[in-house]
């Protein structure tokens, strides 16, 4: 780690922790998506006013990121995927592609981008079928469809190979693609991925249910979000307002992701970096480390003992340093 990098104060760390984890808790909204279905087969805004509220909060949250060098809307068979391109400092042939967690979209990477841009060029994507600027217009019914839309998105970008970096459900999305359509994937970095190295604990699923209901008091969601972030207090910051607006006004129509098998993981032929939080409530960290070390033929496993599921907001510089070292080792 660069000794000149300022050490964030505990207050600042707690402040940025909760909105990050709010966006990456992954399967929180999967259950509610099944119990509150509407006739619409695709994800959609429940009202024009709700969509406008989200867009306002999204624009405010994006102001915490560097200004993108390009904004791309990539057409796929399942809808239009919003991508932002940021030019990095390092001369690396393959750019990083960042996949966020559930309901968080590109602004969730605000703390990470200044560090990751030292690693190379970066794209951020808003996941299709989630609150964000991507627009779903065809049903995504299974894991194959999830792989298809991401493969088509990468195929629509100018480069031919990419380093995928997935956070929480974004980690599952990246791993799901790699096990089905690995073409063009130079490497995988899976940060606290759900449904990859371990199942979600039952206790977390049970505690998530009240937080997944947008019509219940906000305090119920705040309590769960604090729980997933290692007890950090909930603060009102731009990315949090964006996530809350998405939770309240967007109706998901996505399939329950299948747990990726060890057999599928063992078949990966690209380098994989697995980053696990020791204090995660979204997986059993010891079990996840054991599976990752056993199943990944070209795997590097990093355990952050004191991190929660909000690991990318808690350790942005260390995470970027690990990704840089991992990629440098492949050259």
From TrEMBL:
Entry annotated with the keyword Transmembrane: yes
Membrane-spanning intervals of the chain: 18-36
Keywords for this protein: Membrane, Transmembrane, Transmembrane helix
Superkingdom to which the source organism belongs: Bacteria
AB hydrolase-1 domain sequence ranges: 95-227
Pfam family, one: Abhydrolase_1
Protein's name in the database: Pimeloyl-ACP methyl ester carboxylesterase
């Amino acid at each position: 780690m660069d000794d000149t990098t300022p050490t964030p104060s505990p207050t600042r760390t707690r402040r940025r922790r909760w909105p990050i984890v709010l966006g990456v808790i992954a399967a929180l909204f999967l259950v509610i998506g099944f119990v509150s279905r509407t006739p619409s087969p695709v994800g959609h805004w429940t009202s024009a006013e709700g969509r406008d509220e989200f867009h306002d909060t999204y624009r405010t949250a994006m102001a915490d990121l560097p200004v993108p060098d390009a904004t791309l809307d990539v057409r796929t068979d399942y809808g239009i995927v919003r991508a932002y391109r940021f030019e990095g400092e390092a001369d690396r042939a393959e750019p990083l592609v960042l996949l966020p967690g559930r309901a968080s979209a590109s602004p969730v990477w605000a703390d990470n981008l200044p560090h990751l841009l030292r690693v190379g060029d970066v794209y951020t994507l808003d996941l299709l079928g989630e609150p964000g600027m991507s627009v779903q217009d065809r049903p995504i019914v299974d894991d194959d469809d999830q792989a298809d839309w991401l493969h088509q998105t990468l195929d629509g970008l100018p480069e031919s190979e990419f380093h995928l970096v997935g956070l929480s459900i974004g980690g599952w999305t990246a791993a799901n693609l790699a096990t089905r359509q690995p073409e063009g994937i130079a490497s995988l970095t899976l940060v606290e991925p759900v449904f990859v190295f371990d199942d979600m604990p039952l206790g977390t699923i049970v505690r998530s249910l009240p937080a997944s209901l947008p019509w219940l008091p906000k305090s119920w969601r705040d309590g769960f979000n604090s729980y997933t972030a290692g007890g950090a207090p909930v603060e009102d910051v731009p990315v949090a307002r964006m996530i809350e607006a998405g939770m309240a006004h967007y109706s998901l129509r996505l399939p329950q992701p299948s747990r990726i098998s060890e057999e599928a993981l063992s078949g990966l032929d690209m380098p994989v970096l697995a980053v696990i939080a020791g204090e995660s409530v979204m997986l059993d960290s010891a079990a996840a480390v054991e599976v990752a070390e056993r199943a990944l033929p070209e795997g590097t496993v990093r355990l952050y003992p004191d991190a929660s599921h909000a690991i990318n907001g808690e350790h942005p510089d260390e995470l970027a340093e690990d990704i840089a070292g991992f990629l440098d080792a492949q050259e």
